[in-house]
Amino acid sequence: MDYRPAYIPIEVGLARGHQFFELVDARRSVRMFSEEQVPVEAIELAVNAANTAPSGAHQQPWTFIATNDPTIKHRIRLAA
């Protein structure tokens, strides 16, 4: 069977597009790390979203690593 995505009315698609633009337009790059713990679920959601990005032959050849170690965070900040 052929893949057929659900039909989205143009008005709904435009509204979603505007909402998405507002979201990404407001984001900023941050190179400082918080001391606040990030819930594992938030990290898993971010990785799952990243894994939907297109890649050659849909292979997702990247690796994600999360750390709570302040020394490693500091070294990452210096490298960034």
Helix-strand layout with pairing:
Blueprint: H1 10-25, H2 40-50, H3 70-79
Summarize the structure.
By secondary structure, this protein is mainly α. It contains three helices and no strands.
Which key features would you list for this structure?
80 residues, mainly alpha, 3 helices
Written description of the protein model:
The protein is mainly alpha-helical. It has one domain (10-79). 0% of the residues are buried. The model has no long low-confidence stretch (mean pLDDT 87). It starts with 9 loop residues before the first helix and ends with a helix. The longest helix is centred in the first third of the chain and has 16 residues, at 10-25. It is built from three helices and no strands. Helix content is 46%, strand content 0%.
Provide the structure class.
mainly alpha
β-strand amount: under 5%
SSE sequence, one letter per element: HHH
Low-confidence stretches: none
Shape: extended
Radius of gyration: 18 Å
Mean pLDDT: 87
Number of strands: 0
